[in-house]
């Protein structure tokens, strides 16, 4: 029951990343058009904020589709229980690191909100806004890693290890 919800969440995070990439293009086009008309438009901060959001919203979606770079020199030579143990260990370490990152980014966003931190540029945008997007994206990535960890612990092949459809069946690997 939770599988379709998580898959939809990862898919929507990919859509959010795409929307923020469009935001980067729009802010750059606005600067170009402004320069051609002799008007200064400082959209550099907006493009940077969109880049941060696109990057972190895209993590969970990319991970779910096996798009993250993996160095498999050692693990591809292993089989059976040794490979499974190493896959679990790798997911556990990654999940712990990303959960720690998510926790600290959430705290940073809360702290920025409490202190009313604003960006130093012309826009003077409150820092908590982009930090909240980053916090949400990193948290989704942490959920995806934990999801994959429990998937592998359940005796199934890692979903990131091959091309797949996220609605694949949930049969354990023999």
Automatic annotation (TrEMBL):
The keyword Cell membrane applies. GO terms for cellular component: plasma membrane. The keyword Transmembrane helix applies. Its main location: membrane. Coiled coil: none annotated. The chain crosses the membrane at residues 12-34, 46-64, 85-108, 128-153. Part of the tripartite ATP-independent periplasmic (TRAP) transport system. This is TRAP transporter small permease protein. The lineage of its organism: Bacteria, Pseudomonadati, Pseudomonadota, Alphaproteobacteria, Hyphomicrobiales.
